[in-house]
Amino acid sequence: MAIPKAERLMNLALCLMNARRPLSKRELRASIEAYASLDGGPGGADEAAFNRMFERDKEDLRELGLVIETGESPLDGETGYLAKRASNRLPELALAAEEAAALALAARVWQQARLAGAASGALQKLRAAGAFGNNGGAAEGSPAREEEGRATVLEPRIPAHEPSFDKLMLAARERRPVTFAYRRSGAPEPGTRTVEPWALECWHGHWYLAGFDRDREDARVFKLSRIVGQVRTRSGGFTAEVPAHVDVREHVARFAGEGATATARVRLRRGVGWPLRTKALAEKSAEGEWDEVELPYGHGLAADLAEFGADVLVLGPEELRAEVLAHLRAAAGVKGAETA
Amino acid sequence: MSNAIDQTRRLLSLVTYLRERPGARVAEVARAFNITEAELMGDLAVLPMCGTSFRGGDLLDIDTDGERIWWHNADAADTVARPLRIAADEATALLVAARAVADLPGLRRGDREALARAVAKLETAAGDAASGSSRLNVTFEAEGSAFAEADRALSERRRLWLRYYSYGRDEITEREVDPIRLVTVGHTYLEGFCRRAEERRLFRLDRVVEIKVLETPADPPPVRLRDLPDYAAGLVQPAEDDPVVVLEVGPGGRWVTEYFAHDAAEELPDGGLRITLRAAEPANLRKLALRLGADGRVVSPPELADEVREVAERALAAYGES
């Protein structure tokens, strides 16, 4: 039966952590059963397979936080590896019970697999290190308990189902340019974009990427759910300067119509349209069953108004009236509405 | 969630943990690591296969009788049992989440302060590994005042009175609700037992028009947290018997799939989509069709398509068109 991957990774980690000098690949292969049992032996047919496996394992250990340094193995003069104690030690860290409980709540908000695993792994690490007190958080009045009590009050969740999330997070962290196919709102076909990723932001439950769009030579914001297919990392570094402060929300909010440029006047049937009324600049009763309301007029208002059908009547400006009429004509199936 | 990387991470922590606690109890260790006892036993089966060299006979001599865990050569393993530094992913995961939670309006002051202290300590301990966390930001929309009242009702176990806006019916109704918990998935929701509907319901806090904490003690039917839905797959889970609706949208209406749970979305030749979904409240879809205008239409059921057309015609009549 094949040796489980976790066992192989664990053995590699322990060998590297226990080493007092750099260990060459050859030495590691001889020490670790999962490698030694690969058919062929050094120089054999599976040398390439071992090399690939070893490189991947090293990357995996780095992902979970092990700092692996390289040097020359004194035994055979080849490149050797070791994980020095000084580079891998957790500094002293002591958390009070309520701090630990707060952190435990935060650790549970991720739904994205990689970060959910990292968050609970970090808690285990802190608990093992005694950062939550010496009972390890398993006794009376411990974080584990308070965690449970706290959960009755607030259950925040960060969604991240977009497959591009992992790659973009790493690229932004390592400052590497990426290429992906992106479907702009309303565009029939996706187009290729090359972007220097700055930051990812989750707003209203959706993820956005802000970065420098190389083809448009300007900052742009992308919605992750509109990325089609794979994100590819490109060689080379960033060409544009990364701003000290990246405001993804401001950009998205402007697009969502929160940056109004004019004022609209509409009639609203009494008692309906509460969401519109919460945005109203002014509101007064008009004749019959109508109220007259002034609204900030920005991108997207026509669609917001069309939803209310016959309960809304646009008084002005003319441009907004025409837009709402176009929505209604299309919905009523009036001929030629598509070109309105 | 037990992939090899997560398990390796856990095994390394387990080694640190066990070295400090000879004879640790299986039940306690499982609880501390937030895993089942079966998962822990699985880990304990892997550890004796691990060592600094399988040929040197220096494998970790860890065993268990199912109740307690013993490590017989722990002293020899000093170098591998030291607490490990925080990795970049781990720092990102904890710090980004902690900052988002700390920014929730309506969070209790004591909790907010504790979280801020924890974040500061963690940033220091993580060092360079913490820097990547500034590339991610999460904002929860929690609707401050409604949140604070709902939170107070929860901690004092009292009933809430709400004026609540129903989106589909475009009306405001009054209701009394026994709060169960607050859930944040993009927007923040109050989950509670609605005394009007006599059912568990979700209320979006930004649709709460008015809220008051009543003197009446809350009396929701007993429910265990673990029995409540996780909402991981979205808040609105259509039921099997909800009516099936088919929409066709143009390229400008593709966003519908991002906001509505749907069963299928087929590509159309013009770059649009044919979307099949089940709707608990068809009124929501009538509003959606009006919002889409030329970017979409209801294909079926015909009654819904007719309803959209009638509403649009009535609206047009008010503008002097018919």
Explained architecture:
The complex is a heterodimer of chains A (340) and B (322). Chain A is an alpha+beta fold and 340 residues long. Chain A has four domains: 5-88, Arc Repressor Mutant, subunit A (Orthogonal Bundle); 97-150; 165-255, SH3 type barrels (Roll), CATH 2.30.30; 262-339, no CATH class. Chain A is built from 13 helices and 13 strands. In chain A, the strands form three sheets. Chain A has a five-stranded antiparallel sheet with strand order 8-7-6-5-9. In chain A, strand 11 and strand 12 form a beta hairpin. In chain A, helix 1 crosses helix 4 and helix 6 crosses helix 8. The radius of gyration of chain A is 29 Å and the shape is elongated. In chain B, the strands form three sheets. In chain B, strands 8-7-6-5-9 form a five-stranded antiparallel sheet, covered by helices on one side. In chain B, helix 2 packs across helix 3 (37-46), helix 4 packs antiparallel against helix 5 and helix 8 packs across helix 9. Chain B folds into four domains: 4-80, Arc Repressor Mutant, subunit A; 88-135; 144-227, SH3 type barrels, CATH 2.30.30; 244-318. The chains are: A alpha+beta (340), B alpha+beta (322). At the A-B interface, helix 1, helix 4, helix 5, helix 6 and helix 7 of A face helix 1, helix 2, helix 4, helix 5 and strand 4 of B. Chain A: This is WYL domain-containing protein. Chain A: InterPro entries: CBASS_pafABC_assoc_protein (IPR051534), WCX_dom (IPR057727), WYL_dom (IPR026881).
Key phrases:
heterodimer; A: 340 residues; alpha+beta; Arc Repressor Mutant, subunit A; SH3 type barrels; 4 domains; 37% helix; B: 322 residues; four-stranded antiparallel beta sheet; 25% strand; CBASS_pafABC_assoc_protein (chain A); WYL domain-containing protein (chain A); WCX_dom (chain A); WYL_dom (chain A); CBASS_pafABC_assoc_protein (chain B)
